[in-house]
Design a protein that fits this description.
The protein is mostly helical. The chain is built from ten helices and no strands. α1 runs parallel beside α9, α2 runs antiparallel to α4 and α4 packs antiparallel against α6. It starts with a helix and ends in a 16-residue tail after the last helix. The model has no long low-confidence stretch (mean pLDDT about 85).
């Protein structure tokens, strides 16, 4: 079972991720989060902000530990306590934000119309993954150290196509569930809204500002007693 879960399943998940994303791209450019902001904004803003800040911080922490494990293993003292505390805080922030997003999705009639089963499934799976991560951070302290010494060698062995499951097989079931959950999420990315992170619009940061001018008279256009035919088309340059 360990060989199946930690040796074979990661390659199945990665293969499905690559093949699925290529297939979805070839079938048409649908790498979108299918935003529901126009349907409801008030709850979306705070929930989405909390979720994205939390998940980006957690992802960067895991990524830095994976790329430079010596950096994490050399941390000690008060800095290690601060790092552990921040990890728990960002994990809780991501969890709360996603719970709010899920609540919005299942209670708002407008949002339910544009919701499918995968939306619900992936959000529940992410919430479980975040909760497990927070529990691990609280119960198994100094995770940045044992993550660098135990988990990173296992992950390196997977991506170097020389799987060594000895380290992960010796870990507690909660950590093993966290690893399996992570690869399961990777496998489901091409079939969910999460695929939009592959085309994150980072170029927006450096592009020139867009100037939008309103050529209609706001009082006239918003008067419900007037017909649309009475309103002239705007004169755009």
């Amino acid at each position: 079972m360990d060989l199946l879960l930690f040796g074979a399943f990661p390659y199945m998940a990665l293969a499905l991720f690559v093949a699925g994303t290529i297939y979805r791209y070839k079938r048409g450019f649908k790498y979108s989060s299918l935003s529901s902001q126009l349907l409801e904004t008030e709850k979306l803003f705070s929930a989405s902000l909390a979720f994205h800040i939390g998940i980006i911080a957690i992802f960067l922490g895991h990524l830095i530990g994976f790329i430079a494990p010596s950096l994490f293993s050399s941390i000690g003292g008060s800095m290690l306590v601060i790092l552990e505390t921040l990890g728990v805080m960002f994990g809780v922030l991501a969890t709360v934000g996603l719970v709010m997003l899920l609540y919005r999705r299942v209670t708002n009639d407008r949002i339910k119309v544009v919701t499918n089963r995968m939306d619900i499934a992936i959000e529940i799976l992410l919430i479980i993954q975040f909760i497990i991560g927070v529990i691990i951070a609280i119960e198994m302290k100094w995770g940045s150290s044992w993550y660098a010494s135990n988990m990173v060698p296992y992950l390196h062995s997977i991506f170097s196509f020389q799987p060594d499951i000895a380290g992960i097989s010796a870990m507690k079931p909660l950590v093993q569930a966290h690893v399996v959950g992570a690869f399961l999420i990777i496998a489901l990315i091409p079939f969910s809204r999460l695929v939009h992170f592959l085309v994150a619009p980072f170029h927006y940061i450096t592009r020139p500002l867009q100037v939008v001018r309103w050529y209609w008279n706001p009082k006239t256009i918003r008067d419900s007693s007037r017909q649309w035919q009475d309103v002239q088309r705007p004169k755009n340059n």
